[in-house]
Structure formats: structure tokens, C-alpha cells
Amino acid sequence: MVKLSEMMFERARTIAEAGSLQNALSTGIIPQLIECTLSEGLVLGMLKQGVKKYLAIFGHGSTDIGEVLRVYHEAGVIQTFNFRNEIAMAHAATTLRWQYGEIPALVTSIGPGAMQALAGSLASSSNGVGLYHIYGDETTHGEGYNMQQIPKNEQGLFGQVTAQFGESYVLHTPKALRNALRRGGLRVNHPCKAGPFYLLMPINTQPEMINPLNLEALPGLPNFPLTSVSDNEQLEKAFTLIRNSSKIVIKAGGGSCKFAEKVKQLAETCGIPVVLSPGSTGVLPDQHPLNMHVGGSKGSISGNYAMANAELLVVIGSRAVCQSDCSGIGYEKVTDVINLNHDLIDVAHYNRTVLLPGDIGATLDKLLQIFKKAPAEINDNKKSWLNHCADSKREWYEFKQERFNCPPIKDEAWKRPVLTQPSAIKVVADFARKINAVKYFDAGDVQANGFQIVEDDSPSETYTESGASYMGFAPSALAASALADQPQYGICFCGDGSFMMNPQILIDAVELGVKGMIVIFDNRRMSAITGLQEAQYGAGFKTNDSVEIDYVSMANAVKGVEAFFGGESTSELKSALEKAYTHQGLSVIHLPVYYGDNPLGGMGAYGSWNVGNWCESVQEKYHTQNL
Fold first, then answer.
1. What is the CATH number of the domain that holds 40?
2. Is 498 helix (H, G, I), strand (E, B) or coil?
3. Do 212 and 255 lie in a common domain?
4. How crowded is residue 377: how many other Cβ atoms within 10 Å of its Cβ?
């Protein structure tokens, strides 16, 4: 055993000196065939795929892999970061890949810890973010119940559970590692449907030997070539539809973010208004005349006008989520669809669709080449359509300004005038723009108001976890900046309910060295749900509380965090933001905000949604449409 430990330490030191595993193999200082444990083989295999950062909460189900990580961490080959909550850790890992492009792996023990990480992986799965989840698992010899396994007399239960979330592999035998990593690399780096890959590590197979392990045979990063439409007939159909139609709208989903410049070129070339999704703000600059802003059940006046009145729909990188297409009834006058998407299911979502599957960027290039040869004419009908869209955009701008300029309103819970969410979010968003900070929005009313308010000029300015709408995501996301090679200052926008779902960032931030800010918009309730209850049934129920929390004292109780009261006016809030930004660590601002029936207290809703007692009318309309 001592000899094996010495061999592992020597390998780690050699790889560090060589600069990479591949360099060590190429120069022959590490042989192609080695003898090692499954746990070390996994770390070596991860190195071949560019995984050098591990987020970990160790337990009895991960002690062996923990020892390997210790050795490779101390040698400087990898970095390991310890957390206190698996859900927070999953969110930090998701952000590290989503925002910074670095592929992480998170490690948990068996049972409850793995289950928490699995729950947190909904965010990465829903937003198409690829990363590795490595969980301890029950032993394979069936000698009796393993503590914290699923207590049922059936084989491989946790592997079955994780398989339902995406793709998983139980490393029941060490020599299955090669196949597991091949499958994992494809999932984690999939060109359009990336997501978490779950590696289950039984307690007893982690220390088992692989002899030999062929390091050259371990798969590296997959290199997918671009795929695009080779059927010119489909491209010509799309070209003809766009050329001959006047009332056209582009719906730019989250999948369009990587191709923002090409989306803008198509919109400008053909004179097409663009409606955004919550996750694609900034695909067109905010003030661009063709940017109609967000559309859907929590959209905008202009975005929903364009959706409701267009006759040709061009969908780019959208999954047609219920809230972004009004549960399928947002395009009531559309007769034809052109859909660009890499995924075959998503590209065929609507009827009467010209299907353009493949890489969105490559497909946009082909369309732009066609229009370059035969530019689309901006005729009188199209000019009229663009003018009507511009009018609705001006109406939305005036509507927003009225809310941004609203003075504090007396609140029933606070018993005094406090800022409204729209005015407060606008102040913080403007401050983020001034200091070039990334904005993270948590689930709930703050998120919904936020994507209606932000004025982004690129998709990388805001991250809003609208895929799973996971409360507690945004504070946890701040931790990624301390893990990234090139960190960015971030500001978390979250409600009081969302913050209390995962306040571990107060500790994680100090431990990891995060420099960022949390603004807690506190209305003492889950206002998104209270508002929905009141709109549908006329009364809120059990979505508020009577407990007043001193978040400033709570945050200041963690040494290294500095907290401030945000005040009750925009000038006080601006002052608090300036003070918080000077702190060389995590700062927190607590801001009471208004909730009530005053329409100036929120941004409103403009579309349909298939929930509650609205279901019958929405479904009736859905089933009478042809789209």
C-alpha cells in the first residue's frame, strides 16, 4: 500500500513538472501502461478531458477518491475546493462552466449528499451546461446495507435515479472507466444538449486496482465538427418565406446567445424584429430598434405585441418553454415557421415548419450568404409592420420609465414607505453596468422583474437561471468567481426567500475568497406566487410570513463579510452600493421593497400561461390553433 501511494505521488509530481498529462506521455516520462486504483485512473482520465477543478464535500463514501485528489492537489496538478452544501456546490460548478467555460467535476459522498447535488443539477440540465457529478455509491458485493444507500433490496438504485436526470454510469468494475469517460465526454461537451454526467463510484471499487490502465486509450475532449443543412431546397424555402412575408418575428432563445452577432446581422439584413427569452437578453443591444425585448407570460408590451401579430415566425435556438411562448398560444396569427436548432425534437416543435437542423451559426452563415446575393426588400407592408413594432417599443419604454421613477410606496408589512422592486432593480442594474459587473438573478419575482428591466448589450452581462428556476442559484453562483482562472465581479439579485434557500455563500465566499455582492430585495414573502394566487383566486395563501430578519446582522456575523442597509430611497441605495463595492470580499445589501396592489410596484404580465384556473382557457385556445 505504501508503494502504491509513493507511485501515485511520483506520478502527480511528474505530471506537474511536465505541465500536463499529455506532455508527460509524449515525452515518455510516464509510461503508457500503468497500474493504479480506479480513483486515480478517474482523475487521470479527467485530466485528458481538461478537468482540473474539483468541488467537493467528502464523506465516508468518497474517502478514497478524496485521497487521490489530495495528492494531485498538493502536487499542483489539480485544484480542489471544499463546500458546505451540495446544492450550493452544484450551482457554483454550473456557473463555472456556463459563464467561464471551465469544465469542473463535483464530488460528494453517498446518499443524502449525492441526492442534494442531484437536485442542484436540475439547473445545469435545464440550461444545457455540461459538467461531471461524481457520487459515492453502495458496494457491489451485496454484503448488507451500506449506510446512506437507498434502503431497498434492489441493485444499482442510485444509478437508476441519476439516469432519469440525464446520463449516468455506475463504475461497477474498474476497467469500465474507459467507456464511462467516453460517454461522459460526449454528454458534458455535447454541441447542443450538454448537461451533467453522473459517475457513480461504489465504495469498494474506488480503491480496486486497474492493471494495466492504458493512458493513451483514455478518451480526450471530443472534437465535434460543425453540422449544417446540406439540403438547399430547405434553405431556399426559408429564403422565399422571409422574402415574401411582411410581418415576421425572430424568437431568439437561449441557444442563440453564442451567435448573437449573426442573429443581429439576419435581423438587420431582412428587417425583422427580434423577441428575446429570459435567458437571451443582450442578443440584440437593448436600444437596437429591432429589439422588442422579452416575450412570454412575463414578457413586455413590445415583445408580446410582435409575437401576437406576426405571420411568419423564425425560431433560433429556442425550446419553446411554456412561459416564453405563452404555453403554445403566443403566435396566434403565425401561418409558417422557420426553425434553426441543433436538436431534432426542438427544431420540429411547431407545425408547418421549414426545418433547419444543425449548428445555428453555420446555418445562419448560409442564410446570410443567400440574402447577400438577393437582399430582402423592405417594402411598404414591412415598413408598416416595423413602425407598429417601434410604437409598441416606445410604449414599453414609457411604461418602464413610469415604474423606474416611482417614489417609495407605503408597504403593509414594513409599515412605512419603501422602494418598489422595479425602481430598486433598475438602480442596482445601472450600478452593475457602471462597474462592469456580471448580474445573476435568482428565481421568483426579482428574476421576473429583472429580465423585463435589464438593458443588456451582450448575452454575457446577465445570467438568469430560468431553466429550472432554482431558488438559491444566484448567491451560490458568486462562488464560481473564486474558482475561475479569470474572475469577474458579480452582483446577485435575489429575494429574501431565495436567499434563505441557500445562504451558505456567506461562509463559502470567505473560505474561497469571493469578491462580489448580494442585494437582498426583501418583501417578506414569495411575491411571484402571492401575485399568481391573487390573480387566479383573489387571495394569497401561506406565501408570506410575519418574521422580520436583520440580514445585516446575520451577514456581519460571518467574519470577512460586510453588510449594509440599502435604505428607503434611491439615493440611499446608490450610497450603499458604492460602500459595498469597496469591500475586498463578499458584501451584502439588505433592501426592504414594496409588495401590494399598486400597479407601479411591479412590471406586470402580458401573456398566457397554462397554470391554475387559467389551464382550461389556455388549453382550449391551444387545441384550436394549427401551429
1. 3.40.50.970
2. helix
3. no
4. 10
Same domain, 591 and 444: yes
Q: Is the pLDDT of residue 309 over 90?
A: yes
The answer on 320 and 276 residing in a single domain is yes
Express each pLDDT in 239-277 by its tens digit. Answer: 999 999 999 999 999 999 999 999 999 999 999 999 999
Where among 183, 217, 251 does a domain terminate? 217
Distance in Å from the first CA to the final CA of the chain: 66
Bridge partner list, 519? 493, 589
The model's pLDDT over 277-300, given as tens digits with 9 standing for 90+, comes to 999 999 999 999 999 999 998 899
CB-based burial label for 95 (10 Å; 0-12, 13-18, 19+): buried
Q: Would you say the pTM of this structure is higher than 0.85?
A: yes
- Residue 206's alpha-carbon distances to 39, 62, 149, 156, 337, in angstroms, are 5, 8, 16, 16, 51
- Say which residues have a Cβ less than 8 Å from residue 16's Cβ, sequence separation at least 6: 75, 76, 77
| The total number of structural domains that make up the chain | 3
Residue 615 located in a structural domain: no
Q: Which CATH number characterizes residue 268's domain? A: 3.40.50.1220
Same-domain status, 163 and 49: yes
Distance CA 447, CA 454 (A): 10
Which three three-digit cell numbers place residue 463?
Answer: 445570467
Query: Measured between alpha carbons, how far is 421 from 403 in angstroms, rounded to an integer?
Result: 9
Same domain, 29 and 160: yes
Q: Both 174 and 319 in a single domain? A: no
CA 233 to chain centroid, in Å, comes to 36
- The closest of 47, 98, 50, 88 to 68, measured between CA atoms, is 47
CA gap 503, 514 in Å, rounded: 14
If asked whether residues 146 and 255 sit together in one domain, one would say: no
Report whether pLDDT(334) > 70.
yes
Q: Is residue 603 part of a domain?
A: no
Q: Could you tell me which residues come within 8 angstroms of residue 269 by beta carbon, excluding any fewer than 6 positions away?
A: 368, 371, 372, 375, 376
Report if residue 405 sits inside a domain. no
Answer whether residue 377 shows pLDDT above 90: no
Beta strands 416-418 and 409-411 are antiparallel
Q: How far apart are CA 322 and CA 349, in angstroms?
A: 12
Q: Is 151 exposed, middle or buried (0-12, 13-18, 19+ CB in 10 A)?
A: exposed
Looking at the chain, the whole-number percentage of residues with pLDDT higher than 70 is 100
With 0-12 / 13-18 / 19 or more C-beta atoms within 10 angstroms meaning exposed / middle / buried, residue 381 is: exposed
3-state SS, residue 433: helix
Can you tell me the distance from the alpha carbon of 477 to that of 440, in angstroms, rounded to the nearest whole number? Answer: 7
Task: Name the domain boundary from 186, 217, 248.
Answer: 217
pLDDT at 614: 86
Q: Which domain holds residue 354?
A: 232-391
Q: What order of strands is seen across the sheet that includes strand 79-82?
A: 79-82, 53-56, 104-108, 131-137, 196-202, 167-170
Same domain, 78 and 181: yes
Is residue 613 assigned to a domain? no
Q: Give pLDDT, residue 509.
A: 97
Beta bridge partners of 137: 202
Average pLDDT for 4-8: 84
Contact criterion met (CB below 8 Å) for 556 and 480: no
Quote the longest CA-to-CA distance of the chain.
82
Name 134's bridge partners.
Answer: 107, 199
Q: Is the pLDDT of residue 223 over 60?
A: yes
